[in-house]
Amino acid sequence: MTVPIDFHLMRHGEPALTGRLLGSTDCEVIPAGIAKCRAAAEAVPVRRVVSSDLRRAADCGKAIAAERNLSLQVDPRWRELDFGEWDGLFASAVAPDALARFWEDPDADPPPGGERWSSLVARVGEAIDAIDASALVVSHAGAIRAALVAACGFDRRQAWAFDLPYGSVLSLRLWRGAAPAAQITALRP
Prior knowledge:
The protein is of the alpha/beta class. The protein has helices spanning 31-41, 55-67, 96-104, 117-129, 141-152, 156-159; strands at 5-11, 48-51, 72-74, 135-139, 169-175, 181-188. The protein has a six-stranded mixed beta sheet, sandwiched between helices. The radius of gyration is 16 Å and the shape is globular.
């Protein structure tokens, strides 16, 4: 019999830089963002806290782990999509036709010097495979959407239909076996 593993995906708190294409651009999270994540995590039963290596996720993960007397496991596979030359820019600073092509097909038209959507899905899928016990993963909106594709078999458009405000938690139950399967159990802002 397969035992399910519950894991919870939390989007980091509000960063100091908002309204931008924040992929690999590293910035801090505002104190209210950390507080929102700590409050949202109170209802989440976990044995491990994992985060992206970017500060906006790692600082939230550290605060949550410290409250639970757990260590934080930092895993760069949970990073946001790398926007390459667009990273850190406001969307309005990117040529509208290039941005539209990217949103329409991020695999065929990635940002210049950036990452393809399929690469993000692959690395997040590897990170999911490494989860072996109930965990809270503090990550980024793109990586969480990639997790829905990797774990649930959603297509890209379905994954983008989820609203993921800062500090929200998306809970999944995974069954390991012949075919990957997952169930979404909750979404909390």
